[in-house]
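Assess this one:
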Amino acid sequence: MDGLAATLLFFGAIAVAIVVPFVVVPEILERRGYNPRSGFVRAIAWVTFLAIVLVPAASSGFLISVRNPADWVIFLVAMIVAILYDYYRLNPDKVPRLRSRT
């Protein structure tokens, strides 16, 4: 039973880390009058996501324990790809390769 509780807690934390920044935060900001596709709202969503993920990792000492530079490069590349994907998915008119065709 202990393994099941840990698994449920783990998947619950993943759900919160995804749903809160990318669903709840834009919805709250939209109700306050902001465009959910704007750069401001997306930046707040990503800052919220990174805070939910990195603050517990830093407070537990996990970030300090990661000493392999390749791990940090993989993390940074993955974050850049995810952020750019999110931006261009919401703003298809700003995709560089598509703008040159018009």
Remarks:
- Residues 2-99 form one domain.
- The chain is about 80% helix and 0% strand.
